[in-house]
Write a structure and sequence with these properties.
Blueprint (H helix, E strand, L loop, with lengths): L1 E5 L16 E3 L14 E4 L2 H6 L11 E13 L2 E13 L10 H23 L5 H14 L3 H20 L2 H17 L8 H9 L3 H18 L6 H14 L2
Antiparallel strand pairs: 1-4, 2-5, 3-5, 4-5
Length: 244
Amino acid sequence: MLYKLTNQNNETYRDFKFELGKKHTKVKIKNPELCSSDVFHAYGDINLAFLLNPIHADIKNPKLFEAKGKVVVRDFGKVGCFDFKLVREIKYPKWVGSDIDTKVRLYFALLCAKEVLPIFEKEFPDDERPRKAIEAAQKVLENDTEENRQAAAWAAWAAGAAAWEARASAGTAARAAEWAAAWAARASAGTAARAAEWVAARTAWEARATWAAAWAARAAREAQADIDFSKLAKEAIKLAKATN
């Protein structure tokens, strides 16, 4: 089963409108690409549909559908189909919009960043900046204080610097740590001026957590490693529930 988010009018990318129960088709081509008009897009995991939405379609107040289609291309939890049908509208996962929503997103960002941290540390074993960014984000989860958020903001800066200095997959892995710490530092009122400017220049807060996962996915591809993002999403929900 696949999962699809639409707006309240059953519309998605470029205002394409889906009809419930109707089979929609695309012209079949060789080497179709995701994030293009080649395919209809969906998710293979219900939790990833919401965790990745902020940097994909970014649909506000979405409707959630079970859907069917033959997957012809996939990457980072997202799939593409030439033939696609919405089967039925269903309820959100219980964590979405609940009191653990924020924790789920941060745990997901952290788990993704941790997954690819060895890629960075294998090449730069003496550079602790990405690891310290992850640790700073973890501290916010354990004790959400203004001091810890400020520390996470500065740790994110440092991890970003490490990413610029590194190469290929190592630098990309450091980006995942940077964005995880950035999400942890969200809206810190007392953050020093430079960090506050950095925070203001970034995109929406939910997207920060998602970008940590996106950088992790890219690092894994570059290093020819596999990440089970569905498993990480489930673990994030489990951790959020346990620590709530």
